[in-house]
Design a protein that fits this description.
By secondary structure, the protein is an alpha/beta fold. It is built from 12 helices and 8 strands. The protein starts with a helix and ends with a helix.
Amino acid sequence: MSTQLKRFQAVSRAYVGVVNREYWRIRPYALPYFHLLDRMHQYLLPRTYLEIGVSSGASMTLSFPGALNIGVDPEPKVAMPLTRTTTIFAETSDEFFAGRELGTLLAGQPLDLAFIDGMHHFEFALRDFMNIERNAAPETTVLVHDCYPIDEPSADRVRPPGLWSGDVWKLIVLLKERRPELRVSVVDVGPTGLGVITGLQPDSTVLKDSYEEIESKYSQLTYSYLENGDKATILNLVPNNWATVQLLLPARPRRHEPLPLLVSHRAALAGWSVVRSKARRQRLKLQKRTQPKP
């Protein structure tokens, strides 16, 4: 490698680091797993991205400008800046997959990255995974939030006060037992882990053929199944260090634009949103001050 190329790479890494710090300064309250998601987006550079469970749109903003993004949420409350190539469908994921062709929405491109963060019940996560896999390519990466519950109350199917991961963890147990050909791991990142699944087989009918039996059997598992065993081993837990996580992902990026350029564009979009939001609040305050008292 030439000295000039090494210098260019060092400058690029430094530049990305500076812009990243500015981006996260704008979004200071992100949970730890957001930073891991960001690292994955920067590594994979997905051309296409599907997110189940959009909420405020915070994790959608991690996808770089130019990517074709699809978000699905029955009650989206988007408050974050989204790119022009992002489409949000206000419907359940079951309705989405029953009534729409993902391949058409992605303009015939393969699905590079999917993130399941919808209803925190096992059967919902299972159906989301099944529907994503049948629309996937062999190198699609599927991420699943809330796969490593911290305690029994937060793993309950009924939402408690505070943190709630539900029983999504059962999806990991199921896939290890019924789909051993998949690569399934859970990264130990706060607050409740992040599942990483690769090696998808779109033509597989194993889960579909036994869906009712699978749902009945695994729904009956309780948190004691984890407590009475080695929870980390049962859920294929791996440490949250990038050297380990990187080995779980496909080996090459999907886009060829320079990363510093993409990082700059994303930060500019987020920054412009903050500026507009502040300006709007200032206008509202001014209007209140200037309105005549009754």
